[in-house]
TrEMBL record:
<dbReference type="Pfam" id="PF13732">
    <property type="entry name" value="DrrA1-3_C"/>
</dbReference>
<protein>
    <submittedName>
        <fullName>ABC transporter ATP-binding protein</fullName>
    </submittedName>
</protein>
<comment type="similarity">
    <text>Belongs to the ABC transporter superfamily.</text>
</comment>
<dbReference type="InterPro" id="IPR003593">
    <property type="entry name" value="AAA+_ATPase"/>
</dbReference>
<dbReference type="GO" id="GO:0016887">
    <property type="term" value="F:ATP hydrolysis activity"/>
</dbReference>
<dbReference type="GO" id="GO:0046677">
    <property type="term" value="P:response to antibiotic"/>
</dbReference>
<keyword id="KW-0067">ATP-binding</keyword>
<dbReference type="InterPro" id="IPR017871">
    <property type="entry name" value="ABC_transporter-like_CS"/>
</dbReference>
<dbReference type="Pfam" id="PF00005">
    <property type="entry name" value="ABC_tran"/>
</dbReference>
<dbReference type="InterPro" id="IPR025302">
    <property type="entry name" value="DrrA1/2-like_C"/>
</dbReference>
<keyword id="KW-0547">Nucleotide-binding</keyword>
<keyword id="KW-0813">Transport</keyword>
<feature type="domain" description="ABC transporter">
    <location>
        <begin position="2"/>
        <end position="229"/>
    </location>
</feature>
<dbReference type="InterPro" id="IPR027417">
    <property type="entry name" value="P-loop_NTPase"/>
</dbReference>
<dbReference type="GO" id="GO:0005524">
    <property type="term" value="F:ATP binding"/>
</dbReference>
<dbReference type="InterPro" id="IPR050763">
    <property type="entry name" value="ABC_transporter_ATP-binding"/>
</dbReference>
<dbReference type="GO" id="GO:0005886">
    <property type="term" value="C:plasma membrane"/>
</dbReference>
Length: 304
């Protein structure tokens, strides 16, 4: 288990971390999210020993993290660190050797990752000649090659196409199924919501929310009502009680606006029963129910 407890870091007058902390349990995928400059990368660099904290502690299995422990971690930095003139396969093997693997172990693990991350046709290419997406895959393979006990990944999905995202997600799922904790940061909140067991939101160096997606949804202060009505006259939504968050009006597929109208409204209602009455009088109610807030909506509310 990884424990990050009360980390503090200052750069001159700038406070980068102000008591940040969270826990990642065995086999858990933890999504670390926040705006640019919130403290995500600084936290990860402290975990990996790239930076020294001004205060607080990082513990692995209950013990302070040192050099020997960090050798058993896998790290993907925000700034990529590959040797441009090395070929893909030899580069991944090389990093496996640096982490203490035997030549045979490093080669076997590299071959497995090259196949899983769909790099087979590029294994003998120089990194400099790869697309940015394929360079990203190589960097991921470097972080994974020595079969680490913990994975710390800074924006691992950035620049990947959907196929590569699915391939990486599959690899990470295998690692978590084997009990490996995974921490990754991302601005792709829909992806975080889909993949993660738990999430931590950091703002200005402080953790402002954390828990499972269900727990974060439970703390959302606004209850959103999703209403779909067809055949209503224009302007009916003005009679809905409460705050309209979003609305669209369009004809269903294959029909013109003149023959059928389709209204979709997301509302913070002051009276849900009155909203149902208004919708029923306006037209045919196709959908009426509470909408679970997305992680993006939760994030906006928490950091506002």
């Amino acid at each position: 288990m990884l424990e990050i407890d009360g980390l503090r870091k200052r750069y001159g007058d700038l406070v980068a971390l102000d008591g940040a902390g969270f826990t990642v349990r065995p086999g858990e995928m933890f999504g670390f999210v926040g705006a640019n400059g919130a403290g995500k990368t600084t936290t990860m660099r402290i975990v990996m020993g790239v930076l020294e904290a001004d205060g607080g502690a990082v513990r692995w299995q209950g013990e302070p993290v040192g050099f020997a422990t960090r050798r058993r971690f896998g790290y993907m930095p925000e700034e990529r660190g590959l040797y441009a003139k090395m070929r893909v396969a030899e580069q991944i093997e090389y990093f496996g050797r640096l982490a203490g693997m035997s030549p045979a172990e490093a080669r076997s693990s590299a071959d497995e990752l090259i196949e899983r991350l769909t790099l087979t046709e590029r294994r003998d290419d120089e990194v400099a000649g790869l697309s940015l997406g394929n360079q990203q895959r190589v960097q991921l393979a470097v972080a994974l090659v020595h079969r680490p006990e913990l994975l710390v990944l800074d924006e691992p999905f950035s620049g990947l196409d959907p196929i590569a995202v699915d391939a990486l997600a599959g690899v990470l799922a295998e690692r978590t199924a084997a009990g490996v904790p995974v921490v990754f940061s991302s601005h792709q909140l829909d992806l975080v919501e889909r993949l993660c067991d738990s999430i931590g939101i950091i703002k200005a160096g402080r953790m402002v929310a954390g828990g499972t997606v269900a727990e974060l949804r439970a703390r959302e202060s606004r209850k959103l009502l999703h209403i779909v009505v067809t055949g209503a006259a224009p302007g009916w939504t003005d009679r809905l009680p409460g705050e309209i968050v979003s609305k669209t009006d369009r004809p269903p597929a294959g029909e013109s606006a003149e023959t059928a109208r389709y209204d979709e409204v997301v509302l913070v209602p002051s009276d849900d029963q009155e909203a149902l009455r208004v919708a029923g009088q306006a037209g045919q109610v196709q959908h009426f129910g509470w909408q679970r807030p997305s992680l993006t909506e939760i994030f906006r509310e928490v950091v506002a």
